[in-house]
Specification:
The structure is a homodimer of 251-residue chains.
Chain A: E1 3-9, E2 12-17, E3 20-22, E4 28-30, E5 34-39, E6 43-51, H1 53-65, E7 67-68, E8 75-76, H2 84-108, E9 115-123, E10 129-133, E11 139-141, E12 148-152, H3 158-164, H4 171-188, E13 196-202, E14 210-214, H5 219-235, E15 246-247
Antiparallel strand pairs in A: 1-2, 1-12, 2-13, 3-4, 5-6, 6-9, 7-8, 9-10, 10-11, 13-14
Helix pairs in contact in A: 1-2, 3-4, 4-5
Chain lengths: 251, 251
């Protein structure tokens, strides 16, 4: 399992990913699922992945080594894509390439072709953007109406995002709320686990201000988990007791 | 979609169910999914259902009209079951009966046999118990370690239960927290919706103290939703800002 979220607010972009992978419950490992592509000031891009690890790692391989454009002869990578939209298209193309190579063999073994990606960043002075890219290579883009996207085990961590994330949430608050969302997911699903990788990109700078791995036991995150648990336990206490008793149900 | 939860604490049992059903996104209706079987002082039992409505309604039909026990000749219903365990076995038997009747036809139409139930209550001075019964007719019982069970769209509403429900939570708090869990689910999934049916049974009384339908716009539940949203938005404000910046990631 995996949980990743990307939050795109007025001030910038936050990407958060866990690192747990499992091939069955009895085979649990740690793999990085958040990749950063950066040439500070020129481009800053992060890619978070969920799904079959062999697929997502192969996609990453093609994005790093490049796929040849038959029309122009150019070897196309993330680092030489002219725009974020075209870079997202390249992720889609890499997914389709992996599907054409590995799909039939996976099919034969009854393994579904599962992969999804969050892909966000900024190239030169263009707009900071965030995309979600599906297993078919198609994508959607994050907008101001719902300023976040999620992949993987997204349900446990969605209520807090739905309620607390607005487009004008500060970048620091977006990171904090994203970590709460991650914590809610880890608390309820053992398939999502520490360490946590985060990337933070302020809008307009085309650089990754924060590229950080939060290890188990790290004091701030431990404190955040404790405080959030206490706040949740406490939050319902301020709500008056339910007034319902007896029956209003027709017999 | 459906969301139901049952919370079994020291003081008693709370059962909560939504009422939305959908056959596709374009065919949404309201059906009661929480049924009460009661002879006050002698037995108080509630059954909440999720899954295919034709299956769950047929199960209910057999539980009301009874299935003949070939050994004893008795017509077995919920109302004449001698213990909660035997009553739960009867729910399982009714599920298997529906499967034997409707399963082959559903199979032919490619429709999965989906049904699950929460089944809780007390018979005379026996123990108040809560069971979850699966589509195969097998069941598990709720214990003090995890004093709640959920069926249907359970993930959105699980984080608050995981954190706030303990075996010594009061019955009124259990109801309140259950309503918060329901609210979180409705907020994130349109397939779960008002009105909400609730049943509350204090331990030891074998009666349903509260058998209530909460309609849309009902003032207390509206206030609970507003207060909970505000509390969630506020809860993260007391957490200090994340101290992460720069990079601790090896290049």
């Amino acid at each position: 399992m995996t949980y990743c979220c990307g939050i795109l607010v007025r001030d910038g972009l936050v990407m958060i990913a866990d690192t747990r992978t499992n091939a069955g419950l009895d085979n649990i490992s740690t793999f990085r699922k958040l990749q950063v592509f950066e040439k500070p000031g020129e481009r800053a891009i992060a890619l978070a992945s969920a799904g079959n690890l062999s697929i997502t790692q192969s996609v990453l391989g093609f994005l790093n080594e490049g796929l040849r454009n038959e029309e122009t002869g150019e070897i196309e990578t993330i680092m030489n894509a002219p725009t974020m939209f075209q870079a997202a298209q390249r992720v889609g193309r890499a997914i389709r390439m992996v599907r054409s190579l590995d799909g039939p063999g996976l099919d034969q073994d009854g393994i579904k072709f599962e992969a999804s990606f969050l892909f966000g960043g900024q190239i030169s002075q263009r707009r900071l953007r965030l995309f979600m890219i599906y297993a078919a290579g198609n994508c959607i883009e994050c907008t101001v109406d719902t300023p976040y996207l999620q992949i993987g085990e997204h349900k446990y961590g969605k209520p807090i995002l739905d309620r607390a994330i607005k487009y004008d949430t500060t970048l620091n608050d977006a990171l904090k709320i994203g970590l709460v969302s991650m914590d809610s997911t880890m608390r309820s699903n053992l398939g999502v686990g520490m360490p946590i990788d985060i990337a933070v990109m302020p809008r307009g700078e085309a650089k990754v201000e924060t590229n950080y791995r939060i290890e188990p036991g790290e004091p701030y995150f431990h404190d955040l988990r404790e405080r959030w648990s206490a706040a949740l336990r406490k939050a319902h206490m301020d709500i008056p007791p339910p007034p319902y008793s007896g029956s209003n149900v027709g017999k």
